[in-house]
Structure formats: C-alpha cells, structure tokens
Amino acid sequence: MKEFLKIIVGIFTVQASRYFLLAGIPFLVFYIMFRKWFAKAKIQRKDAAKADFVREILHSLQSTLVLSIVGYIVFSPPLRGITHIYTDINKYGWWWIAGSTVLSLIIQDTYFYWMHRTLHHKALFKYTHLLHHKSTNPSPWTSYSFHFFEAWAQGAVLFIIALVLPIHVLAVTLFTMTSFIINVYGHLGYEIAPRWFRNSFLFRVTVSSTYHNLHHSKFNGNYGLYFRFWDRLMKTENPDYVTEYDKIQEARFGAKEVSLAG
Length: 262
Known about the structure:
Blueprint: H1 2-33, H2 50-75, H3 77-80, E1 85-86, H4 95-119, H5 130-133, H6 148-164, E2 167-168, H7 169-186, H8 201-205, H9 209-218, H10 229-233, H11 241-253
Parallel strand pairs: 1-2
Helix pairs in contact: 1-2, 2-6, 4-6, 4-7
C-alpha cells in the first residue's frame, strides 16, 4: 500500500503541475496580463466570478487524482498482459508514434461524444455532469472540473485505447498532452483561431473554442470534443454556431468574414 501511495503521489504531482502550467499560463495571459488586449476575442462579455475559479481548480485537482489512478491501473502489471502498450520504439517505428497519437484522438472524440450525450440524460445529469456545467462561462481552469464519477468516465477512454491500439508510452504521453491542450483551448473563453481558419477545411471539421463555449452557455448541442462530425451526423450541432463565430471574428478583425465554409 505504501508503494502504491508513493507512485500515485508521484503521478499526481506531475499531472497537477501540468494542469497548473498548461491552464495557468493561458489564464495569466488572457485574464490578467493582456485582458484588455484580447477583449474583442472574449466569447461571453460577462466575467466569471473568482468563486468559480476556486471551485474549478479544486474539482480539477480531484479529477487529476482520479486520472492519475487510471494511468497507474493501465500501466500496472495485471493489465499490461492484455493491453497493447509497448516500450520498444523499433517494434512499430517512429511513424507509428504519430499515427497512434492521431488515432487515439479520433477514438477519444467518438467515445467522448457518446459518453457526453449519455451524461446529459436527465437521469444522470444532475448527479454527474451538472458540476462541469456550473461553469456557464468557462475558463482554462474548467478543463478538468469534473464530478468524481465523470472523472472516471473521462479517464476510461485510456483503457479502450490501450486495449485496441498498439501504443508506445511516448504516444500515450503525446496523446494526453495534446488532449489537455485542446481541452484548455475549448474552455479558454476567448476565440483565438486565426482569420484564415473560418474559410478553411479545418473549420468545417474541427471544434473551436466558440463551439464548446456555446455548449456551456446553452447546456445542450455541440457535444463533440475535437471534431464536428458526430454533431453534424446526429443533428446535435447548435444552429447558431456559425453565426456566433462570425460575430466574434467580426469584432476581432473589423470586417465581416466571407462565409465560404459552414
């Protein structure tokens, strides 16, 4: 038990440091240091309360602990015999590090969409996902602000990935880092996508900060994590998304964007 606790504390320390670094720097930049500079990029004009930030940080630390335990379980000897996690890069080559990372994100996006919609079911919502939705005006600190049970549901995707994909330890690290960075962007509260993004192929297929912010302010629709695919297929995309995105881009750049991509 002492050895287990020692390992968990070590993993938690690393993961919590990552949280405060990757969520804290954007918060410092957008909400404190250059707040006026980025004012036009703010998605919601109102400000979240300090109490919201405190709640989000405390629950994010709880989620970090849960995710640390999930990581320990996935990499522990009992499961290593049935997962496809490996340590010899030469087994599949360097190209598969990138390939498996991308595939992991695609798997997570599908898992997240359906898990997310399930948590919005009226029988589950108030017992799990409501806590995350207390952040109606999200900030970077919201990224891991989950109910205890939702944290386990979020972390479970790592089990699935390890069971279906050959994945190197480095790819797992890249996957979790990339996932968290995109998560911070989704909860940033500011739209920072470049001007060219609006009329690119990427706009048609990927989620922006505005996209997920609408989910927090409206409480339904826009369930996707990285891609718009499932929302569009299942007709759960917020019909006001493109209009809201264009309003923010118009405020940022001064002239209304040419709407070639929808």
